[in-house]
Amino acid sequence: MRVKYTTYVSTKICKQEKRVKFPFLIYNNRSIPSIFQKIWELDLKHENVMLILSGSAVSVMESEVLGYKSPLYGRRTGQWQVSPLDFIHLKEFLPYSTKDLVRTWFVSGGIPEYLLKFDTNLPFWDNVQNNVITKGTYLSQEAEFLLNEEFREPKNYKRIFKAIALGYNTLGEICNYTGLDKSMVSKYLGVLRSLHILQEEIPVTASSKFKERLYSISEPYFNFWFRYIYPNRIDLEANRNEEVLGMIKQDFPLYCGQMFEMLVKELILQKHILGEFSFSRIGRWWHKDKEIDIVGLNEETGKIIFVECKWKDVSYGGAKQILSELEDKSSFVRWNNETRKEHFGIVAKKVEGKEKLRQCEYLVFDLDDID
Q1: pTM (predicted TM-score)
Q2: Which of 12, 41, 62, 331 is deepest in the core (most CB within 10 A)?
Q3: Is residue 77 part of a domain?
């Protein structure tokens, strides 16, 4: 959710830098885009100046600055959606082991402001208790603040977020859990997708007409907040932090398993692992009772990779079994079956006998390989 759009309206450089969040100007004066358009056309256009319009209210930046009806439309020389930091940069914020850095990413994602709220002198769980779930702290309130800032009907969006965070991932399941009308939920899901908070998934080999779509929260902090803070806000308001933390610890391994798959996909896309591969498409695959965590394919080279993600320590024998089952499931993936070049892999917390498995041409990674 904490995504920023920066729009460059000139490539010339000014001597002094002034920074103000543009959406706040618009909130105070709806004619600001028109005023800026006139200022630009009459004065700044011919000066040695770079004007950067930046803001974290995505809907405002996309409609009031980038939108077709905006007075500023067509006057930019570039735009940039500022993304969260790659996972590998978390070690520059916290002196944690890779395991605890991964768990921190599951809570905060790669948002620098969120990472700065963690106390470098505290272990992971103390930071979660003191700086994430404790009433009145920045991270205990940030999601609520952002939703109220971005949406006119935050209550309904919260219900949808909570449903998805708790594992209700299809349109029908979300409607049943929230009690909201199907057309209304579809509209809200579309808005959340356009804001890059929610992702819509179909099997990676499916056509765009595939109907049974799955929805997931693409921002780790929002995922954590709606899974653990929002449903327990009454207890947290009553300062029953220890009880809530105990519940989180009990459920956290299951949550980590789901989030680890998301992290591994990011690490692949960012080429921190499997850097020798490039993909036309990458994502999950499922069909009836069969599912593969990550399938990446390349239309030009004919290569396809199948990867299972396991948030646990895996023995050599266990890894062999996982890879064998993965090879069996891969035959059900319909994509150039007669000519494709297949690769099979596993990513886990720890994999015993990695080098031996690699000698068999398997793609094997664990936390020791993520640096």
Answers
A1: 0.86
A2: 62
A3: yes
